[in-house]
Amino acid sequence: MKRKRLKDLSIRFKLLMAYLFLVLIPTLALGISMSVINTNHVINTTKNNISNNSKILKNGIETIIENENSNLTLLINDFGYNQVLSDNLPKMASGDKQAEENLRTAIYGTNGNSGDSISGTIDYFKTSDNTIYNLRIYTPYVTTQTFNILDPIDENLEDIYQYCKAHTGSNQWLFGSGKILAYRALVSFGASNVEDIDVIGMLCMEIKPEFVAAPLSSSSFLDNGYYLVNDQGLVISHRKIANEAIEQTITENLKTYSSKEHKDETLFVSNCFICKETLSNGWVIFSYVDFETISGNVWTNRIIAFSITIVSFIFTTILAIIASKYLTAKIVNLKKGAEAIFNNNYDYLINEDSQDEIGAVASSFNMMAAKVKKTLQDMVDTQDNISESFAEILESKSGQSGHHVKRVAEYSAILATELGYSPQEVHDISIASMLHDVGKIMIPNSILDKPGKLTEEEFAIMKQHVVYGEAILKDVKGTIMQMASTIASCHHERWDGKGYVKGLKGDEIPAIAQLVSVADVFDALVSLRSYKPPWSFENAKEEIIRCSGTQFSPRIVEAFKKTYDQLVEVAKKYPDGHQIDETDHF
Asked: Which residues are bridge partners to 231 per DSSP?
């Protein structure tokens, strides 16, 4: 039983292995792929968010720069307008001491009257927001700090002035020494051509760096840190990065990354995302997001992906176990059918109502079993008929009607059933018992038909019929014929060992021979013989019981006592002289 269960489990194991290869492994692969895809999605989404937010911040700073450019342009235009209106303003030339007075007049007006000066415009900036904390005019003609229009700042602007002389066409921005300078060249008017234009000074707006970087410092998106640098890699504004190793990597490479050779993009450097955005004036915003910031989302997505995979795994595994159990049950059912046929149980039907392949196999199996059963039954019937006919011929040789073999056959069947033999064994014993006296065919009729008691010599010859019977049947193949050979050779053995011809004792005598011995003697006692009249059923019963433990097996005698009434009915069913119809069965 344990071995059968192991085989059933083996089938289920194979089905589960097939499931693993066909379903589970692809499911796991899909889960891993989902995890990778989700990780890449989070990374790409983060890069896009960094880039988009950086562009928004860039636009904010660009707006501030544009506004300040407008302020600077307004000052320049106002200054130039007043300079044009003042007819007394001469062309500024290097070394002309009048230049200082002319500039004073342009700024403060004549006799302090600001109506013809730019002082009104300057007053506007003085009272405006705090974005500008100084205005200054620089000229080589002025050696004092007079023209620090707002609070003066000590700074050598000579290099800027020289640069401004070479670039007079647009507003310029510069960051240095912790200050942002927006400056524009002041040129003389009244020149007849471009070559006559002379740079007479420079107007500078000193702008608070924190104001320009306000969109960066107020952005929660850049909580991790940022850098605003000029095109030379000088830091204008920044928020300290918590990760010192990453901050060191960035600061060491600011000049390299801020160069034009590096295009605007989102880089993945030292386990963090760095987005570069270049402003119109050449400044660069570096926004930074540490990978650890998004790793939570990455792991969340991975956990979700793996959770889905695990749930799918559990669900599909449960389904696979149920399916394998279902399929295994069908296969085991087929196996039971095969085992039933192997054990000669041709009445076993495989109950399978499904319309699938297994149902078709079960249906074919049942039809095969029915056909095998019919074929075997035909063979058995043929063998039974041959055995019966042979026994009747034998009985007729001795002048008997043939009912003896029928009665012995049914007696044997009744006793075998009582002793617990299977239906097939009962049938085989019944047929085999018909040939118990087949050896008498070799005994002369003079001995077989002799009235009265046989002489010792005649009895010695008579005893040889068991030897002849065994010799006739032992080489015939088949279960029934081998049983018949055993019965023929041993049915005259006695329990006490005094029988013939082998002198077997007790359980040395084959059980089927013990059984047929009782059946044969009982029928002989109640039947008419040439050497004796028939006994009554009761007298025969008493004789059988009396011989228990001497001539007969006690176990067989007990079965005889329990089935006595059935045996009597058989004897009455086939009395001597009664013609048996061919449709009768036993």
From this structure: none
Residue-level length of the chain: 586
What CA–CA distance (Å, rounded) separates 187 from 189? Answer: 7
142 upstream amide cis, omega within 30 of 0: no
Quickly count: other Cβ atoms within 10 Å of residue 125's Cβ. 17
Res. 480 pLDDT band, cuts 50 70 90:
confident
What sign has the CA pseudo-torsion 182, 187, 189, 194? negative
Q: Are 16 and 320 in contact (CB under 8 A)?
A: yes
Residue 373 pLDDT = 75
Distance between CA atoms of residues 485 and 430, nearest Å? 13
Q: What is the mean pLDDT of the chain?
A: 71
Beta bridge pairs of residue 202: 138, 185
- The amino acid that residue 350 corresponds to is I
Q: What is the pTM of this model?
A: 0.43
Give Cα 545 to chain centroid, integer Å. Answer: 74
Residues paired with residue 180 on neighbouring β-strands, in sequence order: 175, 207
Q: Is 226 helix (H, G, I), strand (E, B) or coil?
A: strand
Residues 6+ apart with CB under 8 A from 259: 231, 233
Q: What is the dihedral of CA 348, 352, 358, 362, to 10 degrees?
A: 30
The single-letter DSSP state of residue 496 is: T
Decide if 485 contacts 503 (C-beta within 8 A). Answer: no
Three-class SS of residue 281? Answer: coil
Structure token pair of residue 254: 């600011």
Integer Cα distance of 509 and 516 in angstroms? 11
DSSP state, 507? G
Of 271, 225, 277, the closest CA to residue 251 belongs to 225
- Please give the domain boundaries of the chain with CATH numbers for all domains: 217-292 (3.40.1840.10), 376-573 (1.10.3210.10)
